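Exercise 4. Each item below gives a protein and its sequence. For each, produce the structure-token representation.

Item: STAS domain-containing protein (Undibacterium flavidum).
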Amino acid sequence: MNAHAISGELTIYTAAHEKQQLQAFLESGDELELDLSQVSEMDSAGLQVLILMKQEAARQHKKLRYSMHSKAVLEVLEMCNLTAAFGDQVILT
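Answer:
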């Protein structure tokens, strides 16, 4: 399983760059894990990138799992009622 981590902001200011990074990561294997523990801030643009990556992985018949959701990520997912929508295990501390 290939792993990658996002650190810092996942916002409108970084979404385009992160999208490019994640698209390259998506090409690195068929079973992938994205560590979200170091995401310090996320907005709707960041959420769109995460949704897009899940959709693209499914389209390519790849498994993409999000793990170690930071507080910032969980807040956005909960606000949008999407915590369970990705199908990833979320551990609340």
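Check: Residues 19 and 50 are 9 Å apart (CA to CA).
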